[in-house]
Specification:
about 425 residues, alpha+beta, 5-stranded antiparallel sheet
Length: about 425
């Protein structure tokens, strides 16, 4: 008896020790990373020719008056052009939220760029950059917040590629800028630059067997990464190559001041203790707090959603109202995805009359769902994951699960396949 008591005490102390080690975690965010918009968006930094020592403020296609601005140019160049880069971290009276740039000899293979970071319109006291020719590596520029110089974003400029573009397209762009920005001379779309921006900093959370990517996204591109109700905290699987800042399953917006920010990842709740304004680090800790995350209350009915299946056919949840339903939400890089889907096969065989299993798989393209269906040959229902579906069912992270009783009433969230299998077998 004493041996058993001693063993139970040891096990209890061991578990307590594990719980105590799950304290605050500081995650360094040393690197800029691409979010989903980096390669998707096609933003052009338009350039207009400088005449004399005067440039003009942005009028946003005639929506506000244009103001002439006297500048100081560096000497030694034959032709000068100017443009603007969006950056709300500093300001000036002419172009709030934008930083002016001067491109010298814009028709050369590698023009020289000056960025007016101090916004005094004197380009002789600014650093110079060599702009790339087509297919050369992009020119990288860091812009710092005026009130917090450690808070920065990075802008990458590459020459616009017009391979295969017809003459009519170039003509259209020239006509557009001539019409939208009257009184200026557009230098031509083939001499402009694509603008891409790094506004996300990321690191890796590692705690025991737990591992995932975490990032801060500067949503308004001002070099500050923790603004309430504006900036985002992103969390994705370690193997994910894209940080999708548009998918609510992968991010939360920082709560307003006075309220704590929480997020779920891999079935665990985390509380944000501190997010560095400059985006250099974040401190989080596992939490046992009660956070709803817009989940449907236990005992309430879920909405009358429809699932899109592999061949495009629709399945109404109401058709399963006389059965219990276990719904598993995941993507292919989710933690334990392989073992979880193997367990789904076992669960689907438990009671084919009274229990139905649905795997909601989030993929980038519908054909990926068909490939998985061919490879896995599932004996459960396979459905296409969408933002609308997860929002209606109160699912805020992956992997996740939802256990429904008859008449689509919520029984429980968060049972992974192994836990569900054990619980169901006890009934």
């Amino acid at each position: 008896m004493r041996k058993w008591l001693f063993l139970f005490i040891c096990i209890g102390l061991f578990k307590l020790g594990l719980a105590q080690t799950e304290g605050p975690i500081t995650v360094e965010l040393p690197n800029y990373v691409k979010d989903d918009r980096f390669d998707k968006y096609q933003l052009t930094m338009a350039l207009f020719q400088v005449y004399g020592d005067t440039i003009y403020s942005m009028d946003f296609e005639g929506t506000r008056p244009t103001k002439p601005i006297i500048i100081k140019k560096p000497s030694g160049y034959k032709v000068y052009s100017y443009g603007n880069i969006f950056f709300s971290g500093t300001s000036n009276k002419y172009n709030p939220g934008y930083v002016s740039v001067l491109v010298c000899n814009p028709y050369h293979k590698n023009p020289t760029l000056f960025v007016d970071v101090n916004q005094n319109f004197d380009f002789t006291d600014d650093k110079s950059y060599s702009l790339p020719y087509v297919d050369e590596k992009g020119c990288e520029i860091e812009l710092a917040n005026g009130n917090n110089p450690e808070g920065k974003i990075k802008v990458v400029l590459t020459r616009n590629k017009l391979y295969g573009q017809k003459y009519d397209f170039k003509k259209y762009m020239d006509e557009y800028y001539a019409m939208a920005y009257k009184g200026r001379t557009f230098i031509g779309v083939e001499f402009t630059y694509r603008e891409q921006r790094y506004i996300t900093r990321a690191g890796i959370v590692k705690q025991g067997k737990e591992s995932f990517k975490i990032a801060l996204l500067d949503a308004n591109a001002n070099g500050i990464y923790n603004e309430p109700e504006i900036d985002k905290l992103l969390f994705v699987n370690t193997n994910d190559t894209i940080l999708d800042a548009t998918n609510p399953l992968n991010f939360v917006v920082f709560e307003k001041k006075g309220k704590s920010t929480y997020f779920e990842k891999n079935g665990k709740l985390y509380k944000v203790l501190e997010a560095d304004a400059a985006g250099k680090f974040i401190r989080i800790e596992p939490s046992l707090d009660e956070v709803n995350f817009n989940r449907i209350p236990i005992g309430k009915k879920v909405p009358k959603v429809k699932f899109t299946l592999v061949k495009g056919e629709k399945l109404k949840i109401t058709k399963l109202r006389r059965k219990e339903v276990y719904i598993y939400f995941a993507n292919k890089t989710s933690k334990n995805f392989r073992s979880d889907t193997m367990l789904l096969r076992q669960i689907a065989n438990l009671d084919t009359v009274n229990l139905k299993v649905i795997c909601v798989l989030y993929v980038n393209k519908s054909f990926e769902l068909k490939i998985f269906n061919t490879d896995a040959e599932p004996n459960y229902i396979l459905a296409f994951g969408t933002k609308e579906l997860s929002n209606k069912l109160g699912v805020n992270s992956l992997p996740q699960s939802l256990y429904l009783g008859k008449r689509r009433r919520v029984k429980k969230y968060g049972l992974n396949p192994n836990e569900f299998l054990r619980e169901y077998l006890k009934q």
